[in-house]
Specification:
Strands 1, 2, 3, 4, 5 and 6 form a 6-stranded parallel β-sheet that branches. Strands 10-9-12-7-8-11 form a 6-stranded antiparallel β-sheet. The chain is globular, with a radius of gyration of 28 Å. The termini are far apart. It has about 450 residues and is an alpha/beta fold.
């Protein structure tokens, strides 16, 4: 019997089956690759994601943005969370819905986190006709240009052809009614009335353990060093640069933020608080209560707040130029205390150049012994103390910085970072002007974008 035809037929059948299997595998692989490409581009068969974009100075807008994104995601909405500094023209033009949560600081200025967005995008026309947006503008009615940056950003968006999803919502220092209105609009976007509640950290009980008057006899208002400990220490952690938000009994709906002057290894939160004197001669509600009315060992309500715009971030091993005045020394002190703890772990150790300004050396040399000890130990490589009422060639830190422009340029060329803490009017604005003079606008913008120019100003 001739078996060749049968064998040939069997061989052809096996080959055909093999080819069919290979084709199936190839088609399945191609389909998987296409699916992965869709997922990477945010087009995985569903609606385009809602972009939640924030610009924060002290972390409030960023916190609300995180809560917004979490609430929408819990309701099944695809969400992308970004800082304004991470946005570019292509992202805006490819987005269909964007929720902006932006702060204003000073008299209508954008927060530092929005500086690159303003410089790169808001100077040129962009076609945003397909974009719909919601605007939550944060501000303080004590300032003339309340929510000024939110107004400016909204006007620019409308001018580019974008359309508002709903009327702008303005928040005056955390007003709960405005936040409720924002959540109501989010429920429309999520098509549900059952959005999860904000998971904000609650205020808790803390104890004022110590209060020390640091500048008796000063021509300026009294400054106090405070030490506070939580009733429940479990889980209480913070980083240099963070804030303590204090609830004042006379106005619990308007908590006050204070730069923390210590690190967890100190065992307590240290604050540096100046008594505010009003035009009528009375004391500020929060500062008066903390510096005079609240008894030592009494309880108060407070909570820790992360301040990502003033944390060390990627600057862990970089040289630091620390610039501040008055109670702004608090935030700089925390970073120096953290570097003192880490000093033995780095070889060579990073350099630290501190420029600090106050009124008189005889009365206002805040933490003078500690700073001198650090200088002698080599933690502070250069210490420039400037006192405005003592005369001399340079009365303010920005003047001293300008006079040392060449050194500033050398430190920045060696990858140093700049941290500024203290008053916005005068000091911080003056320092910014000097930086632009000595480094150029482009390099200053680059430092901000790289996180090498950080500010905690008020």
């Amino acid at each position: 019997m001739n078996t060749q035809p049968a064998n040939l037929l069997l061989s052809v059948s096996v080959l055909a089956a093999y080819l069919i299997m290979c084709f199936g595998i190839w088609r399945g692989t191609l389909a998987r690759r296409r699916a992965l490409a869709h997922l990477a581009s945010g087009q995985a068969g569903g609606p385009a994601p809602v972009l939640v974009a924030h610009a924060s100075q002290t972390g409030t807008a960023e916190g609300i943005a995180v809560q917004t994104a979490d609430a929408l995601q819990a309701a099944g909405v695809n969400v992308v969370l970004r800082s304004l500094s991470q946005l570019d023209q292509a992202t805006l033009q490819s987005s269909s819905e964007v929720l902006f949560i932006v702060s204003t600081y000073g008299e209508g200025d954008p927060p530092d986190a929005a500086a690159s967005f303003v410089a790169k995008l808001m100077r040129e026309p962009i076609d945003l006709a397909r974009l719909r947006f919601g605007m939550l503008a944060l501000g303080d009615r004590a300032y003339r240009n309340f929510c000024g940056f939110g107004h400016h950003l909204e006007a620019w968006l409308l001018l580019q052809g974008a359309n508002a999803l709903f009327a702008r919502i303005e928040v005056d220092r955390g007003d709960s009614k405005a936040i409720a209105a924002w959540r109501h609009e989010l429920s429309h976007i999520a098509a549900t009335t059952d959005l999860p509640e904000w998971q904000d950290l609650p205020f808790e009980s803390w104890t004022l353990r110590k209060r020390t008057h640091l500048n008796p006899g000063s021509q300026g208002a009294p400054v106090f060093h405070l030490e506070l400990t939580p009733r429940n220490a479990a889980g209480k952690d913070w980083q240099a640069g963070d804030l303590l938000q204090v609830q004042v009994p006379t106005d619990p709906q308007r908590p006050r933020d204070y730069s923390i002057a210590s690190i967890p290894a100190d065992g307590a939160v240290h604050l540096l608080v100046r008594l505010e004197i009003r035009e009528d001669g009375g004391s500020g509600g929060a500062s008066g209560w903390l510096t005079h009315e609240l008894p030592v060992n009494a309880m108060l309500r407070a909570r820790l707040r992360a301040h990502s715009q003033f944390r060390i971030g990627a600057n862990t091993t970089r040289d630091l130029i620390l610039i501040g005045n008055g109670t702004g020394l608090a935030g700089l002190r925390a970073h120096l205390r953290q570097r003192a703890v880490q000093a033995t772990g780095h070889a060579p150790a990073p350099r630290h150049w501190l420029l600090f300004g106050e009124r008189q050396a005889a009365r206002d040399a805040l933490y003078a012994e500690e700073l001198e000890t650090w200088r002698q130990a080599g933690l502070i490589t250069q210490l420039d103390l400037v006192y405005s009422r003592d005369g001399g060639e340079h009365r303010y830190v920005q003047e001293r910085l300008r006079a040392q422009g060449k050194q500033l340029q050398e430190w920045i060329a060696s990858s140093a970072a700049i941290l500024v803490c203290g008053s916005l009017d005068g000091m911080a604005e003056g320092v910014a002007e000097v930086l632009r003079e000595q480094l150029g606008d482009e390099l200053v913008a680059q430092l901000q974008q790289e996180g090498r120019y950080l500010r905690d100003v008020y």
